[in-house]
From TrEMBL, chains A, B, C, D:
Pathway: Amino-acid biosynthesis; L-phenylalanine biosynthesis; phenylpyruvate from prephenate: step 1/1. Residues 206-281 form the ACT domain. Pfam families: ACT, PDT. One of its GO terms (molecular function) is prephenate dehydratase activity. Keywords: Amino-acid biosynthesis, Aromatic amino acid biosynthesis, Lyase, Phenylalanine biosynthesis. The keyword Amino-acid biosynthesis applies. InterPro entries: ACT-like_dom_sf (IPR045865), ACT_dom (IPR002912), Chor_mutase/pphenate_deHydtase (IPR008242), Preph_deHydtase (IPR001086). One of its GO terms (biological process) is L-phenylalanine biosynthetic process. Residues 11-191 form the Prephenate dehydratase domain. Its EC number is 4.2.1.51. One of its GO terms (cellular component) is cytoplasm. This is Prephenate dehydratase. It catalyses: prephenate + H(+) = 3-phenylpyruvate + CO2 + H2O.
């Protein structure tokens, strides 16, 4: 499904087709606008395009996705060398009920829906269409496109809101998902080693293996953060898979590798852990300024280094 | 889909229908054999049956499920009061390619498959059936049952191995999943407050909220474990959802609440955390004996209490 | 120097003779008033009287003494079994210059003084009596009493303020010590296992040995305190003496063994350490109310135990 | 008592006179041999000579001294700016009983002794000279020199072993101290900012103030050491004296400021503490090689910095 003629430095891979939540995430990326967008079938394909140099970046779901693949994405980032996260995007996960123009809600007897989307809007459907039937779809977008198949028996489809830009459908109902606050977190992944500039509202992602499985080694890992005032926004243990009881940790921390406190925590982590993978520093999707105690300011780190340098050089202390 | 006449103390709810991986997990439960099994559509329904007293227990996927719902399951356990985990079960996740009797692999042109199962066996399918088409199914089991629909165009289906007990199908290929080591972890959930007996190979599950989001509060939480030599086998942050940046932690620890070191850690945790939910102590699915340093033996805790009691009572020390 | 006829339950040993700073500490003990006071020569003798049952308690200097013996006192408490601290007393350490009645400061050519007291008032003496000579004395009190020896060459003596109650001397100058804030901390030591009542302004003294000399074992010890919000007011490493690099720690903590947070810290400590010696809980000499975070209130500990008891008994949670 | 004509770069101050334990420590300093030795009266004077530039260094007792002044020495190092410890020396503290030539032990009726030395050899004296009298002396050396005073009533003196080099005395008994293992630790203090070379058997001395007196700040300080595998050989709380309940800590750690793990711990400490005073890195008196886990090797620190530098520069990781 790749387009061999596309300029890889101008190509973005995403879980397609047009209309998915993943595409909605990609629409948030200013530098991707007007470039080639490469629709693929799953996370593995998306990252393979990037690794092979056929795409400059891939948009993948990394947390709470209704399109699946989150665990696969985390494990892929942990095991495929050379990948970096360069941006984070949030997409409100909600569903619309759509039909061919002219259809009314009362006419709907059969609903086409991806099984996961169906499960997540089942409450609304049972309340409003108590006698409906369900036809499964291979994806959220195909649920809607299949309405136009000649042999389709479905009267309506559960679809992402973006579907209205792709198809001539009528929206019979909005916000039919059972959880009105559902959000999926996406990351843009590339092989570029250039780090997005520090903004003060940044996040840094890491994969860390513990030196052993003794009680206390997780604690020792976290001390590397807390002793520098670095907050975590995500921590998740994942079995490494090579042996019983060994784990790696997916960690998101608040701050940028160019923040002194983060850089120093990374140094501590690298000394402590047999394997620590830097997945990138990037602007937070929520643009929220990182708050931290002033005792972890860059100046404090710089001053301490100056002080130590003075001692080591034999100069009098200030 | 509930059976009103069933004896709730003899009824087990599970994500059905017969043939799912969840049913395979339930088959591992000795006390469920010969009882009423209630097939439901999703985790929410399964837990609702238990809470309503219509089922004595529900089997739900809690980690790495290909049938979905893991995050929903974790969040449900965190928010629905009164639930307890009473058992843990592992099911090897693999798929078979099945067809109506007499079908040969070479005959297969169209494959029916749940979208997630399809994604996970896509590698095998593309290698062995490069020109196949895909028809989505609402579930892994329906993929196979639909082969017998009069109007079905599919020649084969991707299905769980258990399907052979349900349908008169022929297995065209086994182990077609792309990840040969994939395992899903299931838990049996009930409202019973009786705790399964301590076996020495136990696990305890908790939900813990941190007192605030300061750097260091996660560390302080983990100190409650490490200072008593209690190992964690799972830790996962989950946004609480009521405010930005607040997390709860899903924690599995090695040991039983009747182990002194675990009981003491729970005491420390309860004092530390504004909310800690005990989800249960239960036998580990892998039967692996817990290893811990002898300085955390029950006797050490008991001896220390005797010592303190002696001091407080004014008796001479030994 | 013991008085064999004294009732041991009514006898207090102290570093004498009358007039010492230690006697000034003993004067602060209400229950010692009107009882037999036994003057001894050093800390070892004082504690020996208590251990032998010839004295009900001994007053000894434990920190910042000008009369010496602090290290010896700490080591004695660590090694002599059965001793308990039952009270704490502070004495302002200052000196007066005294002489036989009729003597004027201008007349003073030779000063009798214990060498340590002399060192501590040397500044004043050199400024005010630049040409004086020094005769050493065996103790601060003997410095003054020797003025009345027939063959004494001294014109004045450096002595504790309490000397005026013992001898018919004239005070030529007050507050001649070089450090106006000097204070010595004394403790009253007995073999009674009865613990002084909790007042809210208490201190608890411990001797703790670390399990080994690895980096981190001191930290692990202190976690036992910090994780229960228990503050230390004194920590001091002392070589154990049986092997290179092994230390015991003299620890004073804020609170009473009947405070839940302190009791729990002691439990943790006892489990952690190969040897922990409870030296007593007693009212603080400065009467300062202990401040601690409300999350370490007794109620929190009691509530947590109730919660755990409910879980273990299989009762429903509140 | 200073010698104005002495070359300060060639002058060593010590608690004199010749024959003291402090002199015995100074005799262990190769570079001091053949230079001017300046005998002073106490620690304060010794350090004042150094600060004023009249002495190149001063030998002072810092732990377990029978000559007193240890607390004063610690507090002086904490408050007098510009001082550095450049060497550590151990002197076995024992006493000899000496007399004028021709005296026999049986002849001894009166013993001259510094009060502290007397207390420490009282056991031997009472066993061997049960009826002896005691005349106090201003110092251990004067106890012996006074034997030669015309009007002395003493028959023998308790004195340091070094006295035999100073006076024509006969040793009546050796090793009469009650504690056969007693050792005093001395340090050589100068204002030189040059740090003695790293030997692998080094010690580093610090004074650290805690940011506040909350439970946990001492723990946080020690984490700076333990997280880098740095062991402490001494820790002692000392009241700062400016306010109730504030403490500074006298800390000796194993290692040299040029060890990466020590340098990094100092950086962490400096960021953490409102005031940390580097008192020097110097060769250990016991020449014992520092043992530490290989994960704290210099190479580990250097490798981690290289790794971080690669990330920050945008170069591909190795």
């Amino acid at each position: 499904m790749t387009d061999a003629s596309a300029d890889p430095s101008e190509t973005y891979a995403y879980l397609g087709p047009a209309g998915t939540f993943t595409e909605a995430a990609l629409k948030q990326v200013p530098e991707a606008q007007g470039k080639t967008w490469l629709s693929v079938n799953n996370v593995g394909e998306a990252l393979a395009e990037v690794v092979a140099g056929r795409a400059t970046a891939a948009m993948i779901a990394i947390e709470n996705s209704v399109e699946g693949g989150v665990t696969a994405a985390q494990d892929a980032l942990a095991t495929i060398p050379g990948l970096r996260i360069v941006g984070e995007y949030l997409v409100k996960v909600n569903f619309v009920l759509v039909a061919k123009p002219g259809t009314k809600l009362d006419d709907v007897k059969v609903v086409n829906a991806h099984p996961v989307a169906y499960a997540q809007s089942r409450g609304w459907l049972e309340r409003n269409l108590p006698d409906h039937g369900h036809i499964p779809a291979a994806s959220n977008v195909y649920a809607a496109t299949s309405l136009f198949d000649a042999d389709s028996n479905a009267d309506a489809a559960v679809a992402p809101p973006g579907i209205v830009d792709q198809l001539d459908v009528e929206v019979l109902a909005r916000d039919i998902g059972d959880n009105p606050n559902a959000v999926t977190r996406f990351v843009l992944v590339s092989t570029s080693k250039a780090i997005p500039p520090r903004t003060g509202a940044d996040k840094t992602s890491l994969i860390v293996e513990l030196p052993d499985d003794e009680a206390g080694s997780l604690l020792a890992m976290l001390e590397q953060f807390s002793t520098r005032g670095v907050n975590l926004s995500l921590i998740q243990s994942r079995p490494i898979g090579d042996a019983l009881g060994r784990y790696r940790f997916v960690v998101d921390l608040e701050g940028h590798v160019e923040d002194e406190r983060v850089a120093d925590a990374l140094l501590g982590l690298r000394r402590f852990s047999p394997r620590v993978l830097f997945l990138g520093s990037y602007h937070r999707a929520d643009h929220r300024e990182i708050e931290y105690h002033s005792k972890y300011d860059d100046e404090i780190f710089i001053e301490a280094r100056d002080w130590l340098r003075g001692i080591l050089s034999g100069e009098p202390e200030a």
